[in-house]
Amino acid sequence: MIPNPTADRRTALALGLAGLATGATPALAATAATTAITPASPSPRRRERLADGWRFALGHAADMARDFDFGLWQRTYAKPGQAVSPATMADFNDSAWASVRVPHDWAVDLPYAPPKAAVAKDQEDMAAAHGFRAIGRDFPQNSVGWYRRKLPIGASDKGRAIWLEFDGVFRNCKVFVNGYEAGGSASGYAPFRVDIADFLNYDGTPNQLALRVDATLGEGWFYEGAGIYRHVDLVSAAPLHVPQWGTWVRSTVDAGGAQVAIETTLANAAEAAGSVQLRHRVIAPDGTTATTIAPSEAIALAPGGQALAKASLALPAPRLWSPQTPHLYTLETAVLVDGQEVDRVETRFGIRTLAFDGTRGFAVNGQPVKLLGVCNHQDHAGVGTAIPDALHAWRVAQTQGMGANAWRSAHNPPAQALLDICDASGMMMIAETRLNTTNPEALDELERMILSSRNHPAIILWSVGNEEGHQGTERGRRLSAQLVARCKQLDPTRLTTQAMDQGWDGGAADAVDVVGFNYRTDKIPAWRQRHPGKPVIGTETGSTVATRGAYANDAAAHVVRAYDTEHPWWASTAEEWWKIVAAEPGIAGGFIWTGFDYRGEPTPYPQFPSVSSYFGAMDLCGLPKDNYYYYRAWWRRDQPLVHLLPHWTWTGREGQPIEVWAHGNAEEVELLLNGRSLGRKAMPENGHLAWQVPYAPGTLEARGYARGKLVARDRRVTAGAPAALRLVTERTRLAADGDDLAAVRVDVVDAHGTLVPMADTPLTFAVTGAARLIGLGNGNPTSTEPDKGTTRRAFNGLAQALVQGTGTVGGARLTVSAAGLKPASLDLLFHA
Ligand code: GAL
Questions:
Q1: Beta carbon of 547 within 6 Å of any ligand 1 atom
Q2: Is the CB of 593 under 6 A from ligand 1?
Q3: Distance (Å) from CA 578 to ligand 1 centroid
Q4: What pLDDT score was predicted for residue 120?
Q5: What residue ranges define each of the domains in the chain, with the CATH number in brackets?
Q6: Do the Cβ atoms of 34 and 286 come closer than 8 Å?
Q7: What b/e string do you get for 557-567 counting C-beta neighbours within 10 Å, with b at 16 or more?
Q8: I need a surface site. Which of 258, 311, 451, 693 has the fewest CB within 10 A?
Q9: Taking the model in full, what pTM does it have?
Q10: What is the pLDDT of residues 425-470, one digit of tens each?
Q11: Does the beta carbon of 223 sit less than 6 angstroms from any atom of ligand 1?
């Protein structure tokens, strides 16, 4: 009964590629010109982001009465249109439901529920994997969520193609329109489309959208959230139109410039045959028209049919996309009927070449580039998986601040919003499909990942698996070979990889183009000898575990020191893996596990109250741990850096030796305590420096020298008692688009403004004006304080508040206070 939205696409694509029987146009010549952009008329297509106006309530996975009678009479499967639940109908009273904004993750609001004593080990592991939130089979009352919203449909929409685009709903969701089941997705990660035109009222009667989302089962071993945690768009297009993911832009580059190949899928949603022409315009990165392609020949479309049209154009002097120069072009595709524009879509693309080579490593546009990567899950303090676009952007900026140029979306396709940000900021991306198998669901998810994302220049590799049990076997090879073949059909421009933790001498390693090593980086050099010329990357490297701002292990308190020394048995320190990869140009790079801490999989302490991982170079709030500066030092050698650890507030330990480290890329580092030199040392290549310094309060300073000149310094000053709060953020002028936000760091400082490094002060947050507080965090992996609300403790001196605009132009103020301390305020301005 659930229509498979991609099935016709697949058929159409196969048809189109096989011979373009239905109306393909021959490649068309481009009229090259650089003219000023003409102001675009509004697109005849309507795209509306459904962010506000949602109502939400928990249903029940085991009790029909508490699940809005879902399942009563099994109506969906018997009599379509006879509501499967009253909650899918417009006249249902949802006034008691919560008002929520999408993206939304209801799991982040749930209480923690550590297993009671004496549960099976597997059950305990499962609870730990999801961060001990009360969700899953044992919590049917928390595991089903219902969403409702009215759809903005008018009389003018009648006869048009109307669909909903969901970028990610976790998970097993059914989408209802006016009581009809219209579509859905089992996958919590792959994007999907639901056609809804048939179910709508066009006469002014309200149109009710409802979703039942069932997160009882998970798909991963990490916190996965629950609900509509990525964007939802409503699209209303002319009956003759470009369907979702219907444009594909590829390019090749040589000395003569770029050859751009354009494929356009066209669809006819009408009951009558139609005929269209296509017109293309390419807009250069500076906004001028680079090229136009005159309207094509007529393309015939059968009722309900599709066609594939091809065109090509040349750009003699393209501005190439690279991590340093993320130039983006826009393809404007217009569908014409009788010369009139009836539909128009814009597709951003980048022009660049990528090459993986087993000897020379990786290159962009022919220039060698080491992949300085991070693996990440989509998860952040305060909001869980429901990350607003502005927070994605902030996380990318924090990651680039560490010197990273690449991101692996583990272990699922990245959000389109994240991909847009990566395109625009030069962050390269490995997109990974969730299922390494070839059943219809897995193939469909892979296809949805590639069709939704292949225009993004940021994507450099498709990953078809991660640490699969069958990875080293012949069956594992077979499965991956099928997935790789599908990747190549859908996108012959990119290579494939698979993350493996063993079995690299056969199995799936033989099926993919670029072999991925998870950890065991020290095995790569010998493997390269056995497989000369085969490209290789570290798909997971490191990973040091650390508690931000902590400098002594404390097993009872689940605290891990933040020197680069602690790692699980399968992993390594930052220094160990990076020295190997840095030394071998043939290893294309590595992706640390992880950039950010994430909820669930609490390692190295899998027991409550550890609720998040300790792997990140940054904590769950994106606040840097000390290892962030190790990477920053060696990944951005053009920027001199010295970073000193630990803090210098060791009251009661006077005279005792303290282990002091300096990360940095200066040639030499001199350490001084209260102005007295403790000597200068040469910084080892890709290493760090260490001293034992008897503690005396005051100032510990590191000075970095290059060719005898002072190039960088860092200081740690002994702090007094907490006296005041300080608020720090990058931007106080923000867009009043309802999404933009400030990630505000709260510092607990002493009377002189020095950070109090162990302060765990309870803080109270208040926001007034055109903003709302959407989440709080402090980076403590053992904190079980709520993510929402108005109070949170500082952790090792710091906390974070996420302050998002309401969408109204105007000012807002965040005030943070704590008993006995001077409060702090921050003014934000949300502009049109
Ligand atoms: C890998 C896995 C990751 C994460 C990591 C922890 O095996 O791919 O998802 O579990 O180990 O070290």
A1: no
A2: yes
A3: 18
A4: 74
A5: 49-237 (2.60.120.260), 241-349 (2.60.40.10), 362-615 (3.20.20.80), 642-646+648-717 (2.60.40.10), 724-831 (2.60.40.10)
A6: no
A7: ebbbbbbbebb
A8: 693
A9: 0.95
A10: 999 999 999 999 999 999 999 999 999 999 999 999 999 999 999 9
A11: no
